[in-house]
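Example with several molecule types.
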Amino acid sequence: MNFTSPTPASRSSAPSGTAATKMPPPPRPSLRQRLGRRPFGLTFWAGTAILLFYLLAAFSALYVFHSSLNRVAVNPSWIPPEPFAPAIGPSSGHLFGILPGIGTDLFRALWQATPWDLTIVGGILAFDAVIGWLLGSLAGMNEGGTLDAVVSWIGDTLGAIPSFFLVIGIFAGLSALAPSEVSIPLFVLLFGVIIWPSTARLTRDRARLVARQPYVEATRACGGSRTRILFRHILPGSATSMLTQLPLDVSPIFFVLIIFPWFWDCASAGASLSSPVYLLPGLPPFYPLPSVYFPEWGNLLAIGVCYGLPISTGLVAGTVYWWMFLFPLAAILGLAFGISFVCDGLDRRLSMAHH
Amino acid sequence: MPPVVEGPVSEGRAPVVLDVRDLTTYFYTYDGVVQALEGVSFKLRRGETLGLVGETGCGKSVTAFSIVRLVQEPPGRIVGGKALFRGANLLWGLQGEATFKPIKGSDRVKVHRRFRRIKAAQNRLASVRGGGIAMIFQEPGQAMNPVFSISDQVGEVILLHRYIELIDGLLAATPDAPEVPAAIERLVAAARDGDLSVITAAAVELGNVVNLPTFGSEVHYLAKDSNPENWDRLASEIQRHLSRLRLTNSQRTYLGTQRRLAEIDRDLRAVYLDEMRRGEPRGRDRRRVSSARNRARLRAIRFALPGVKRRVSKPVREEVFWRVVRALEGVRIANPVQVARGFPHELSGGMLQRVMIAMALVGNPDILLADEPTTALDVTIQAQILELMRDLRHRVGTAILLITHDLAVIAEVADRVSVMYAGQIVETAGVKDVFTHPLHPYAQGLLASIPRFDQPSKKLTSIYGSVPNLIHPPTGCRFHPRCPYAMPVCREQRPPLTDEGNSHHVACFLYNGPKVVE
Amino acid sequence: MRGRPVHRFRISPYIRYAIQRLLLFPAQLLLVLLILYLALYIPSVLATGQYSGLTGFWSGFSQVVINDFSGNWGVSIQFGGVPVAQLYAWAIPQSIELAVFALGFAAAIAYPVSLLTGWSRRPPVDETVRITSLFGTFFPVIIAGGAVTAGLFYWFLSTYHDIPIGILPNSFWWLDQGYYLPPSWVLFTQAFTAPTGFPLIDGAIHGAWSFEEVVLLKTLIQAGLIAIVYVSIFLRHSFTIVRDAREELHVVAARSRGVSDRALLWRHTARRVRPTFLLLFALTLPAYLGTQFVVEATFHDYGLGTLVFLTLTGQIPPRQSLAPILESWQVMMFLLAIAVLAWLVAVDLIAHRLDPRPVTGK
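Resulting structure tokens for the full complex:
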């Protein structure tokens, strides 16, 4: 050996200041680098763009249609007066064509419907996310507690009944009491109340796992309060369950909004372009909207399906008019995809931060 | 396969079974490229235990995972180096598997992986894993599938690596040998006497008479667990167990086809090993063997019917079970029959680690990669597991790469030690050399931070600073920002590994012995 | 244990758990009924103003329970005074038959596809599954049903002289076969069959093979549609389950023992995720039922789905004049609750069997 090994004692005598000067300064990342370091991903930004577009459409609709926001403009001459009247397709005057059943311009009706649909979906999802996430996290955090028992019990029992049936049933009962003007807020409230337990149950399972993690115990051991644990660890940790569930809860909303108008307006009425009798008088107790002229995508899609795809109503003769159902469908799918992309992006971003 | 030279272990003369050179592994994350391993080289000889120590996050486990290519991909990627296992380069073909493109304006690198080639590499590696190189993990509870019984999981290794031997044993068994009734008599008599050693001897004898040692263990447990209530039934019980060795014709045919398939699998492994040894694809051989396998499978298709398969494979299943029991006996589990029937959640951590070791050793590996095998266990169990590993090394001659951050464990079992810092090996030496006169400043600091019973008055010191960020590792010697002896050259160049005599290797500019020639 | 004395009268923990779970079933059912009664009945009573205090509440509830269990479900006017219970007895076998095919298809697609897509590490696979499953979740089944019917209409008519609507052949198909009236085992304007109510079984009993052919083809078309829609809903969760299972340490450990990738996927991971898949199926059962009901209504089958919508529009009338539709709606909910709860019990027991770990009891 050609070097006497230095003793550890001599090491400790080395002034720490000199060592610090030797440390190379960490390269300062540029703004672009900092933004790009933990990216949300393309899908998130695409989703955000879609949602911004919908918001823009909604606010402009509030301005444009402010005089009669809850009833589409009906032109009686567009309701086919006699059998086998030609359908009016997309043109420069009517961008998305004419919806024959209620005789309205489809583009304007869809535009007018935007604020309503954003309110319905946003309201229900806000209910779902906030209550489901919070209660689920609290339940998972206090596993075996009273809240946990109550949340699990409600979740299990409501899980046994298809939620949309329950919504419609209760809605029928309540709408008999309330005037038709409040049917939309009532619908939002009811759906929110019915839908949160499934989210809470999923969140609870996740929160339970997070609460068992060593870092949570460490926080507790260091004297971290329960609120701190909830907000610092449990809620971010269980957000991924909520974010996975949220986009899926959009589909039962539209399921109800499409199926019931469809069945009432078309399937039972036998509506088609060839028959001028298209709407039954009055409304069934299960109709979630104030009237058939209400601007709402599900309603417009239902009417579009029964006139544009008459075979779906059981009428064998008929031509397919694609614009009547494809444009409302695109509006719904666009919103659903926007929400889903945003949730997926947030989910990925969160799981990245956690790993 | 190079001839295995028997020689004194730990003298450095035993043949090298694993030669790792310049192993470099990166993780391509959203924060940038984590340079987890940078030019790691070491040799492992037959029957030797090499300890790999270092702080958490210095790349010890990544080293083990990289050797057998179990690094999670994405984000991980082995970007260079060789791992020669008996002359076969396990990392052959890395270059063609991915292309790298830096993303402008960020630290990230876009990796385009060719998954087809990666899959081919994984298939190649499967020929080495388990049979050649086995692994045990830090968390035995998580390293076992919760829905499989212990016998299923250990048995799978037997079926993968010892199937031919098992079938030959079954076919060679002689349940109707003339000496069998007498041996059974003796065993029943021994059970009546209740002397455990006599029972064991009689059981082993019966196993020998039947020409199947596993049967010895089987009847041993049968006789041991019998009590006055069913002594008279013991003989008939033994006869019943013996009947599993009387194979029907279809069972014999089944065993024949299975043996053929296992031979083909062995040939395929040989082809893959050959591929890695020569460093060129041997597509024709591989296709030949796999078409032979397809033909053999097609010929055995009648045995694939569920009901038929259940019946004809019964002897195999039972034999596997009793082999598992014997393997569990080998790791000193007291009640192997119950453990084999049980599921992972029913066992304690120490028991599970024993099962893991049994599982690793049942394939007769040349190398055991032990990734922190005792970290999750309490001290008494830890001692038992270490004792077990030391004993196995002497008995079986397996080389062990022991990864731990616990220097006491290293002192206990390792022959040589490699000290790792920030993804690089900074010092390698015999275990005594490292503990008595460490050369690298990091190794010195590491040792100074252990409490010593023989020097109670000594002040404990810790190393200044903290583990560097491996996305932007320090230039030159990665330890230089924390090193009390840092010189200007340390910042600019990476120190080469030099030999300071007595095969004590160190990577530091403070020393200038002859360079270790690659 | 071999060689150990046999313990007599020892019930295995699994059997004990199963008995407990089965005993819990009636209690759960009563609970669901109570919730339904509260949720559906109270508003309707409030609407009509005929509230009669707490005694009335409990007597009303017991009346509902008795009516529900005794099959006193009212009479249908649209179906010519047939008891509603009889309508259900005819409709349920048809729905079950369709569900058997649809679930068979769904399982045959969903199981391997979820395993393969969850296992793959290639980014495009991940994106494709996400987007496909989103489409499946939001795409209205009525449009898919309408498009399938429209697309197949002329081919079906020219090949089989029938229209692809309903499950049983239409009246002009019978005419084409030389019957002025369908045979006596086809009841009620070609809606139901006798004696079992399962059209395929009844057709086989009476040896009507051309009938079998048409019915089977129609069943397959509808079952395929249900399966595709449902699988895309199922896939969204199931492939995440497989992806999580893939990252577990025991997969790496098994790989380190030389287990091939194929065995890892189809043996290790498959067995690991099977109990979770079952639970997932139980959780998505409402989505499945919704899909099947809409497809049945779109194709105008005389199954449970059509009855749901007939109930909704008040065409299956009540047994009492008070709160007419709600009562028959409640019968529907009662049946669904039984089906779903029974399914949950079954799934729980099967999952328990597949996963040896004990459930962490509270």
